[in-house]
């Protein structure tokens, strides 16, 4: 049974990835806006922003936040692709075939993971051209990739809920707007101690700040301490809630 599920998921993921390869503009579009924000903050606003980054450049400070914005923008396409398949009757055709039903969802999730990691790699490459430098070793890079994978999966399952529940294309993608905004109210671009009281409290207690701080410490080759535990706990918590909710919506939608 497990082999049947994995084989079906691999086949459907290959189909979904081929669609992405035929229209690579989705990956390019996902990367363009974060790169534009990065250029704006580094070359226009960066000189006026005090980060106390320990002598590092501003691009080193703000890149983790840009990577999270890249993911938040990218997962909206997962909701869009899922909605398009539902509206096009593809799900009904798959369900009439002897394949594992959950494989269709996992195919979209894994496609989102691959597409988002490619977009993140493009953004990191541009950041390197802009002067980003890291003291991270192999273990630190693996930890960075691991956190980003968890973050992508967590947000993608939220995108699955939106794609299954939406009644329009806009409804399937608009959920990502608050996610894109969250890094701006965190430690991603400025230290939280520069913010007024209520805003500072929110910034310090929302998931993006702990994730950004962990990625920043890993890139700098510094000890991450307990911050990474909080970051991973946020990602896993959102992932589990999103996964359970998405399966519940899926069962209700296909019955």
TrEMBL record:
Q: What family classification does the UniProt entry report for this protein? A: Belongs to the ABC-2 integral membrane protein family.
Transmembrane segment boundaries: 27-49, 61-83, 104-132, 138-162, 174-192, 228-250
User: This chain belongs to which protein, by name?
Assistant: Transport permease protein
Keyword terms of this UniProt record: Antibiotic resistance, Cell membrane, Membrane, Transmembrane, Transmembrane helix, Transport
Any one Gene Ontology cellular component term annotated for this protein: ATP-binding cassette (ABC) transporter complex
> Keyword Protein biosynthesis: yes or no?
no
**Xref: InterPro entries:** ABC2_TM, ABC2_TM_bact-type, ABC_2_transport, Nod_factor_ABC_transporter
Database matches in Pfam families: ABC2_membrane
Q: Quick check: keyword Transmembrane helix in the entry?
A: yes
Q: Name one GO molecular function term.
A: ABC-type transporter activity
